[in-house]
Amino acid sequence: IKIGNNEQDTRNILYSHKYKCTISHFQFRFATWKDIVMMVVGSVCALVHGAASPLMLLVYGMMTNTFVDYEREVQELKDPNKTCNNNTIYWVNGTVYETDENTTLYCGVDIEAQMTLFAYYYVGIGFGVLIVSYFQIAFWVTAAAKQTQRIRKTYFRKVMRMEIGWFDCNSVGELNTRISDDINKINSAIADQVSIFIERISTFIFGFMVGFIGGWKLTLVVIAVSPLIGIGAGLMAMAVARLTGRELKAYAKAGAVADEVLSSIRTVAAFGGEEKEAERYDRNLVEAQNWGVKRGTIIGVFQGYLWCIIFLCYGLAFWYGSKLVIDTKEMTAGTLIQVFFGVLMAAMNLGQASPCLEAFASGRAAAKSIFETIDREPEIDCLSEEGHKLDKVKGDIEFHNITFYYPSRPDVKILDNLSMQIRAGETTAFVGPSGSGKSTTVQLIQRFYDPKEGTVTLDGHDIRTLNIQWLRSLIGIVEQEPVLFATTIAENIRFGRPGVTMEDIIQAAKEANAYNFIMELPQKFETMVGEGGGQMSGGQKQRIAIARALIRNPKILLLDMATSALDNESEAVVQEALDNVRTGRTTISIAHRLSTIRNADVIIGFEHGQAVERGTHSDLLGKQGVYFTLVTLQSQGQTNTTSGRIHVVCQSSLRLRSWSQLSNDFVPDALSGSLKIQRNDAEEHVEPAPVARILKYNQQEWPYMLLGSLGAAVNGSVNPVYAILFSQILGTFAIQDLNEQRKQINGICVLFCVVAVASFISQFLQGYSFAKSGELLTRRLRKVGFQAMLKQEIGWFDNPINSPGALTTRLATDASMVQGATGSQIGMIVNSVTSIGVSFIIAFYFSWKLTLVILCFLPLIGLSGVFQAKMLTGFANEDKKAMEEAGQVSSEALANIRTIAGLAKESSFVDSYEQKLESPYKSAKKKANIYGLCFGFAQCVIFMAYAASFRYGGFLVRAEGLQYMFVFRVISAVVISGTALGRASSFTPDYAKAKTAAAQFFKLLDRVPKISISQSDGEKWENFRGEIHFLNCKFTYPTRPDTQVLKGLRVSVKPGQTLAFVGSSGCGKSTSVQLLERFYDPDEGQVVIDGVPSHSVNVPFLRSQIGIVSQEPVLFDCSIAENIQYGDNTRSVSMEEIIEASKKAYLHDFVMTLPDKYETQVGAQGSQLSRGQKQRIAIARAIVRNPKILLLDEATSALDTESEKTVQTALDEARKGRTCIVIAHRLSTIQTADIIAVMSHGAVIEQGTHDKLMAKRGAYYKLVTTGAPIS
C-alpha cells in the first residue's frame, strides 16, 4: 500500500503545526473569467483525484477477504473426507460440515476470476487518476502563469510611473527582488500548490470516511493515538527552528569577521595579518559548530520518537483490530486493513497538505507588498497625458518662495523660502558649499519632485500645469556621474530623442567633442559601452552624455557638476564642448571648480537653501559674500597654486581614485545584475569533485561515520521488516485454531514494540553521529577555505567574481553544501540501500516469480517517487532562468531611474520589459501541459502495478499453492523498496550541488597564488637598507588588460631619501607603490630592492620592512590599541610601544581625552572616528612596525585644512631616517622631498629637487605656477 511513511512526510507533519492561515480571495484579483473557469475545473478534478486512494482501499479490503476465504477453503479441503458442493463444504457422506460454532462454510472461490475483476477495478481507477490529475495540474498552472504575467506587467508599469521621491524611499535592490522573487512566490501560491492542497485534503476526508464506514471503534482507537505524533512533530519543528536560528547567529559573527578581513585585504596583506585573521575566524566558528551538533541530535531524538510511536501505534491497532475480527466478529480481515490504512492515509495527507499552507502564507505576504505598490497612485505621474503643452517656449525660469524637503528625509529642510529668476538664453551658474541645495533646484526644474510650498514657473506657467513628458523633452541634462545604458554608443545618443537620423547623431557627437574618439574605436558608433558604461573612461562617458543631451536640441540645458569627476586633461576638452553648446540656450551650470564658471552671465550664490547673492564674477568678488569666501578658500594654501585647484583637485582625485582602485568593492546595482550572469557561466565549467576527496577531509571522524551508518542501516531495514509483520498478521486470520491464532497475533504485536524501540535508538544514532561529523567537516572546510583565500595574491581579489560579498557567501554556503554530500547524505544513501537490499532478499526468498513481475514496474514507481519529490520543491527554479533577461531590463531601468525620467524614456523600457516576458510566458504555458502529463503518469503507475501483481499473485496462489500472505509480503516489500529508491534519487540534486560546490572549493584550495606569501620562499637578508630602483617597469591590471598603466617606469631612491610622485590621476603613481609592496608583479622590467629583484624576495620579509599610510586608511572593528598593534603581527606589541608610537603620530593627547582611552572601540571600518583621527592611528600603526621604507599614498588629501596640518607634522616626524615614497596632489606638501618625479601616462617625464625643477621651467614648473593639466 502506498503510504508515505518516509522522511518527507514526517517533515511535512512538522510543518502543519507551524502555519495555520487562510487563503484570501485577493491573490486572485488578476484572474479573468477564463482563468476562473480553469481554476474551478482544476479544483473539481483535484477533489476527484483525492478520492481515488481511499476508493482503492475498498477494493483492497474486498480482495483481502477473497484471499482469506480461499485459504480457509484450501485448508479445510486438505481433509480427504470433505468435498465442495454447491458452494458449501459437505462431508463425503453427504451431511453438511459445521464448524465448532455451528456455521456452514462457503467454498468454491474462483480466485482467478475474482482477481481479474479486481485488476479491472484497479486499471479503471488508474486511468481515471491519469486523466483527472492531468487536468488538475495543467489548468491550475496555466491559469497561474497568465495571472503572474499580468501582475508582472502591471507592477513594472506602475513602478516606472512612480515619482522619484518614491524611489528615494525604496532601495533598488529591494525592488529588484520584489519583481523576481516575490512575484515567483505569488506564482507558486496560486499554481499547482492549490490543486495539490485540495487533493490532499480530499484524501484526508475520504480516508476517514472509509475508516468510519468500515469500523468506527478501531478508527477511534487509532485517532486517539495520533495526537502524540502531532505533539512530537510540533515540538521538533519549534526546537529545530530555534536551534537553526542560534546556529545562524553564531555563524553570522564569523561571517562578519570574514567579510571585514576580505574587504580590507590590502591592509591585511601589507601588515602580514593573514594567520592572525584565520585564527580569529576559527574561534568564531566553534560556537556555530556546537549549535549544529545540538540541532542534529534533537532531530535524531524526535525522528526516533516519531517512528517509535508509529510502530507502537501499528502494534496497538492490529492487536485491537484482531480482537474485533476474531472475538466479536464485528469486522472481517478486509475491513481491518481498510480501516487501518484509511486512517493512516488520512493522517499522512493532512501532514503533506501543510507545506502548501506555507506556500500560501509566503505568497500572501509577497502579494501584500506587490499589490500595495500596484494600488498606489504616483504623486507625479510621468506617463499621464494631462497638462498643457506651450506652443512657443522662451525659457524663463522663476522660483517663487520655494520650501522643500526630500521625502526620504522629511526632517531636513533643503530649500528654505528660495526665490530667484533665470533669464532665457543666459548662462546662470550656481555656487555654494555642498548641501546648500544647488542640485535640488535642478531636480525641481525637471519636476522630479514637487516643492512643499511655492511654485516653479516656466515662462510664467506653473510647471505643475504642464505635461510632464513634454516639459522634460525641453530639458537636456548632463550629470556628475552620467549613466549610459548597456547598448551601443549610437543607441545611447538616440535615447535623447526618438527617431533621429545617423547624421543627427554624428552632428551631436561632433558638437560634444566626442566624434574623434568614437571614430578611433574599432566598431565606431556600434561600440558597446558595457553595463553602466563600464567600458568607457569618465571623460568619454561625459561626452556621450553631452551628445545625448544635445540631440534633444533642448531649450534648457542643465549642467550638474558636469566636469567635476574628470582629470584635468579631459576636463579641458569637455569644458570646451560645453562652452560651444551653451550659446542661445537657457543654461544652468553647477560647479565646484570656480575656474569653470567665471565666464557665466550670472552667478547665484547659495547658502542654507537660499539664494543669497547674484551677479557677475567681478560683482560678487566685490560683495565679499559666499562666492568670495569660496574663491579665496580655493586659492589659499599656496599663493603660487592658482585659484580653483585646491579643494577641487582633492575632491575630484578622491573620486577618481576611489573608482580606479576600489571599483571592485562597490559595484553599483546595475552592475551586480550583469555580474551574476557572469558568475553563472563561471560555475558551469567546474568538473564535480570526486567524493573520495571530500571524505578525506572527514577522515578524522570515521568512528562517528561508522556509528551513523550502522544506525542508518538499521533504519533502512525497519520498513521491510514491517512488511513481514504486516503480512504475517493477515496470515493469522486464516488459521483454524483460535488459541493458536491469538498466540501468533500477540507475538507479532510484541515484535512491533521491539521494532519501535530499535528504530528509536538507531534514528538517534544516525542523527547525532552525522551531525557531529558533518559540523566538524563544515568548520574544517571553512577554515581551510578562508586560509586559502588569504593566501591569494591581490590581483585575484580584483576580479568581481571574488568580491568580498561573493567570497563570504561562498564560505557560508559552499561549506555547508559539501557537508550535505557527506553527513546526512551518506546516512540517507545507506538507509535507502539497506532498505532496497533487505526488501529484495525478502521478496525473492518468498516468491521469485511474483517479484520479477513487480520488478518490471519498479523503475516506473521509482520515477514517480522522484517526481513526487520534485513536486514538493515545485518548478519555480526552472522559471527563474527564463526570467533572467527580463530581470536585466528591469534592474537596469530601476538603477538608472533618474536618467530615464530625465530623458522621458519610461515607456520604452516598459515595452522592452513586456517583450522580454513573452518567451518565459510561452514556455510556462507549454510546461503546464508536460508537467500535468508527468504528474498524472506518476500518480497512476502504482495502480497499474497493483493490478498486474495481484492478478498474477492470484494465479500463483491457485496454480502453485503459494500462501496468500506471501503475495502481500512480496508486494509490500517491493513497493517499499520502490519508494526508498525514489527517495534516494530525490536527494541526487542536492548531491550534485554538493559535488559542484566542493569542486569550486577545491579549485580555490588548489589554486597556486601568483605571488606566494609563505615564510620559506624567497630571500631574506640581515641589514635591510631600503634602496629601491624601478627599472623599466611595465604593468597592466589583470582585471583591465587593455589599459597599460605603467609604460617603462624608471626611478630610484637611496636609503633615507624621500621620493615624491606627482602627476594627474591615473598616471600610475599608486600602482608603483603596489608593485613595491608586491601586491602585483610588473609584466616587464624589475623592482630592485637592496640589489635583489623583488620577485625573488621573501614576501612576508619584504612587507615587514614597509609601513604604509593610504588615503582612506582601513581600521578593524576593535580597540585603538589593537589597531595600532596590528602594525606588527609577528610579535605582541607592548603598551609602552603603542604609546610611544601614538605620541610620534600626534595621537596620544587625543586618545587620552576619550573615556576608554586606548580601549576605545573604533567601530566598523573606524566609523566612530573622524578622518584625521583615523589617519593618525594608521600612522601610529605604521610607526610600530619600525619600517625601513615608509609609503605615504595621498595620506592627507582627504582631510580638512586643520587636521591636515597635524597629520602632516606627524608624517614629517615619521619620515626621519627612513626611505620614504610620497604620493601627493597638493604640491605644497612635497617641496621638501629629495627627489620629485613627475609622472605622466605611466612614465617619469622629469625628476629632481624642487629648485632644480623650478629652474628647468618644465612640466613641474607649469604645475606649480598654473595648475595646468599635465599632458
Automatic annotation (TrEMBL):
Output the Gene3D superfamilies linked to this UniProt entry.
Answer: ABC transporter type 1, transmembrane domain, P-loop containing nucleotide triphosphate hydrolases
Q: How is this protein situated with respect to the membrane?
A: Multi-pass membrane protein
Query: Which keywords belong to this entry?
Result: ATP-binding, Cell membrane, Glycoprotein, Membrane, Nucleotide-binding, Repeat, Translocase, Transmembrane, Transmembrane helix, Transport
Membrane spanning segments where? Answer: 36-60, 119-143, 194-214, 220-241, 304-321, 333-351, 745-765, 852-873, 930-949, 961-981
Domain of life the protein comes from: Eukaryota
Q: Which GO terms describe its biological process?
A: oligopeptide export from mitochondrion
Q: Where in the cell is it found?
A: Cell membrane
Q: Name one GO cellular component term.
A: plasma membrane
Has UniProt tagged this entry with the keyword Transmembrane? yes
Ranges of residues in domain ABC transporter? 397-633, 1028-1266
User: What family is this protein classified in?
Assistant: Belongs to the ABC transporter superfamily. ABCB family. Multidrug resistance exporter (TC 3.A.1.201) subfamily.
State the protein's name: ATP-binding cassette, sub-family B (MDR/TAP), member 11a
Species of origin: Oreochromis niloticus
For this protein's source organism, the top of the classification is: Eukaryota, Metazoa, Chordata, Craniata, Vertebrata
